[in-house]
């Protein structure tokens, strides 16, 4: 299956074209966050380098969050447009699960994380398996202190993964009573080639039009609306827009 995968959810921008278990072309950029300016250009270039045309693609896989508001919208928009215009399947995969794919040892507990600023993380716990990471603790937008308390339940080693891990690893090691491991170098970056091959095994979305980014937190507009309308929840906000 000829598959295009895109992850623009955080600082790295990673794109790949694969055919089954063969990587045809891939690029990962970590030096800028102007994903809206570069992502589509990179997609077009990689498809061409893979000696394919857009019409050859059979599936597009996107990392749909959590992460940067703007970054998430880039991959989601490109994925939906391509799926609709080319008439191909669209698969969405968690951005945290995408990171967890980089830990291949079986039966390991993996803690992928992104820095959400102000000592807050996007994170979860996965267990590795032959068919991909399985969710153990749900994905959260959570204060670091609260997350460390949740992780006290585990008696097995934990493997942290993500380019933001160096900011927090010392606190994990200090507050947890189990070995805290890290991964090396490039394995802390999302890999679109891994995302593509994993996405080939996942069911496509039933309705492309209903796909939205998984922000895992309220947008600024929602937060401001709820501040002005205490006790009204999010339903009223949706009706007001």
From TrEMBL:
An example molecular function term from Gene Ontology annotations: tRNA N(6)-L-threonylcarbamoyladenine synthase activity
Pfam family, any one: TsaD
Keywords, alphabetical: Acyltransferase, Transferase
Organism: Fructilactobacillus myrtifloralis
EC number in record: 2.3.1.234
Highest taxon above the source species: Bacteria
Name the UniProt record assigns to this protein: tRNA (Adenosine(37)-N6)-threonylcarbamoyltransferase complex dimerization subunit type 1 TsaB
Top EC category: transferase
